[in-house]
């Protein structure tokens, strides 16, 4: 009801525009897309070598829901740990699938390698991203169904973006 009464509806991604049009049968011309932004100056190497800097650090964030695909990342971690036993993966976010994901990590024997950070402030996320800039690390953009473009933007700014469209996970 409110979407019809509003003069404009703002969405942060093309996916959300389509969801609002579909879910609320709202005319597309009432919607404005304003993408999320990122402040590049906040992302920089700190010059401090992090503990375990010789081991890869993987950071991924988003809503911990089945459709986001974090279970695939955890399965990949299980395949990587034998080669890099000190590998650490930090999953940032919360959601209704978090307990199941913990169970996946336990079941695959990587509960010590996968850290569930829960919700973190923007400052803490920036700290984590800057930490992996200081050593071998990468971000993993999760969300095959509807990836958040801002996640790719954060990774680009942090100079760690890996375009996974080649494997068909970003639509």
Give short descriptive properties of this protein.
33% helix, 6 helices, alpha/beta, single chain
Give a description of the structure:
- The protein is of the alpha/beta class and 171 residues long.
- It has six helices and six strands; from the N terminus they run H-E-H-E-E-H-E-H-E-H-E-H.
- The strands form two sheets. A four-stranded parallel beta sheet has the order 5-4-3-6, sandwiched between helices. It has a two-stranded parallel ribbon with strand order 1-2.
- Strand 1, helix 2 and strand 2 form a beta-alpha-beta unit.
- The longest helix has 12 residues, at 122-133.
- The protein is elongated and about 55 Å long.
- The model is unreliable at 156-171 (pLDDT under 50).
Give the helix/strand layout:
Elements: H1 2-5, E1 9-11, H2 14-24, E2 31-33, E3 57-61, H3 70-80, E4 88-92, H4 98-107, E5 114-118, H5 122-133, E6 137-139, H6 149-157
Parallel strand pairs: 1-2, 3-4, 3-6, 4-5
């Amino acid at each position: 009801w409110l979407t019809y009464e509003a003069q404009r509806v703002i969405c942060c991604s093309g996916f959300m525009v389509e969801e609002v049009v579909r879910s609320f049968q709202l005319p597309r011309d009432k919607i404005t897309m304003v993408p999320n932004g990122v402040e590049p100056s906040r992302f920089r190497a700190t010059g401090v070598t992090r503990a375990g800097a010789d081991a890869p650090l993987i950071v991924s964030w988003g809503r911990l829901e089945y459709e986001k695909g974090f279970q695939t990342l955890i399965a990949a971690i299980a395949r990587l740990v034998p080669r890099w036993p000190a590998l650490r993966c930090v999953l940032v976010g919360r959601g209704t699938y978090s307990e199941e994901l913990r169970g996946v990590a336990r079941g695959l024997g990587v509960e010590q390698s996968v850290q569930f950070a829960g919700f973190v402030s923007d400052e803490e996320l920036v700290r984590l991203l800057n930490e992996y800039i200081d050593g071998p690390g990468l971000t993993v953009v999760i969300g095959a169904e509807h990836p958040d473009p801002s996640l790719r933007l954060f990774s680009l700014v942090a100079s760690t973006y890996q375009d996974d469209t080649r494997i068909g996970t970003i639509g």
